[in-house]
Amino acid sequence: MSGLSRQLWLKLVGLLPGEVNHSEARWLLSPHGHMPLMNGRRARIIVNRVRLVACLFAILTPLWIVVDLLVLPLALSWQLAVARIVASLAFFGLHRHYRAYSSLLQAWGGMVCLFAIPSVFYVVSHLLLLNHHLEGISAAIGTGYAFLPFVLLAGLAIFPLTLTESLGFALPALAAHMLGGMLEWTTVDWPSFWGSFWLQVLIAGVAALACISQLAFMIALVQQAVRDPLTGAFSRRSGEEVLELQATLAMRCQSPLCVAFIDIDHFKTINDHYGHHAGDLALQVLAERVVDQLRKGDVLVRWGGEEFLLLLPNTTASQAVHALGRLRQAGLGLRPDGQPLTASIGVAEWQEDSVNDWRQLLELADSRMYQAKQSGRNRLVGRDLEQHGWLLSPAVSAAA
C-alpha cells in the first residue's frame, strides 16, 4: 500500500465507529490475521444472518407468483412460477442446512449460496422475459425483475465483512447485470444500462462501508470482551472459546494440545499485608513475564483471581515442561517483600492423557495444579512426573 493510499485508508478508518486503532486497521481490509475467536464469532453472525435472509426469501419469493399470474401472459407467468418455486426450495434448503456453529469458510459458502440463488434466478427470468413483448402494467411488472441485482447489493450491508470480502461478494451481482446487458446486446439502451450499472456500483460501495463499519464495531467489542482489563490476558469466557476451537482443531488434525494451570503461591498474603494494589501489580508483572515467553500461537487466560491458564497448541507435554522451565528460570516477578514470586503449575496434554474433550483436559490440569500446591507449592505436576512419583522442583525446572 503506497503512502498516499495508506493515509487515505487511515483517515477512513478514523471515521468508522468502534475506535479501531491503526494496528487493527488491517483487519478491516482482509480476514487474514484475524484471531480464531474473532473468526468464530463472525462466522456465527454471518451464518445466522444467511439463514434469516434465506428463510425470508423462501417465504416471499413464491408469493409474487399470484401477481405474475394476474398480470403477465399465462405461459410466461407459469415459467416464472416454476423458477420461483425452485428458488424458494433452494432458499429453504440453505436455511435448513447451515447451522450457527460453522467455520468462517462455511459461512462464506453460505453467503455464496445466498447470493448465487437470486443471481441465477435473475438470469433465468431475464431470458424468459426477452421472449415476450410486454406493454402497460405487464411491462412495469417485468421491469421490476431488473431491480433484483440492486436488492442483492444492498443486502450485503447486513453482514460484518472486510473490504476484500465485500468486493468479492459484490462482483458476481455486478457481473449478473453485465450478463443481462450482453444477452440483449442489439436492443439494449446503453446510456440507461450504464447509468443503472453506475448506480449498482454506488450501492455496492455504500454496502461495503456498512460492512466495514459493522466489522470495526465488532472488533472493538470483541477486544473489550475477550481481554482482562487488569492483565491484558484473555478473559475466562473468551479463553474457553479459544480452547474449544483449539481442541476441535487438535482432534481433527491429531495434533498435540497442552494446557497448564498456573496458580500464584500465597497470593492472599500479598493482598492482606500490602493491599490490593500490590496484588494487582504482581498479577500484571506475571502476565507480562509469561506473554514475553510465549510463541505466536500460545494464549494466556486469566482464569480467575490469581489463577491463569496457558494454552499451548501443537505442543507435547515434554515440550510444555521445557517451556515452563524456561519461564520459571526467567522468573515470574517479585513479591512486595523482594522475594521471588512463585506458582504451582499443573500440565495436561489431550493425546498423552487420553481425554475425550477440552473440559476433561481442563479438569485434569486443574487437579494436577492442586496436587502441586498440596505437595509444597512452587512445583509443576504432569502425567510423566506423576508416573515417576516425583514433582518438578525449581532446580529441576531451571535445568530443563
Question: In brief, what are we looking at here?
Answer:
This is diguanylate cyclase. This protein has 400 residues and is an alpha+beta fold.
Features:
400 residues; alpha+beta; Alpha-Beta Plaits; 2 domains; disordered C terminus
Determine the fraction of residues in helical runs and give it as a percent range. 55-70%
The number of domains is: 2
What's the N-to-C terminus distance? 45 Å
Strand order of the largest sheet: 2-3-1-4-5
- Describe the global form: elongated
The main pleated sheet reads as: 5 strands, mixed
Q: Provide the gyration radius in Å.
A: 29 Å
What is the percentage of strand-forming residues? 5-15%
Helix count from the secondary structure assignment? 17
Give me the secondary-structure category. alpha+beta
Q: What is the residue-mean pLDDT, rounded to a whole number?
A: 83
Poorly predicted runs are 386-400
Q: Give the oligomeric state.
A: single chain
* Count of β-strands: 5
Helix/strand order, N-terminal first: HHHHHHHHHHHEHHEEHEHEHH
Structure commentary:
The protein is of the alpha+beta class and 400 residues long. The protein has 2 domains: 224 residues, no CATH class; 164 residues, Alpha-Beta Plaits, CATH 3.30.70.270. It has 17 helices and 5 strands. The chain has a 5-stranded mixed β-sheet with strand order 2-3-1-4-5, with helices on both faces. Strand 4, helix 15 and strand 5 form a beta-alpha-beta unit. Helix 4 packs antiparallel against helix 5 and helix 12 packs across helix 13. 36% of the residues are buried. It is an enzyme of class 2 (transferase). InterPro entries: Diguanylate_Cyclase, GGDEF_dom, Nucleotide_cyclase, Rev_trsase/Diguanyl_cyclase. Its EC number is 2.7.7.65. This is diguanylate cyclase.
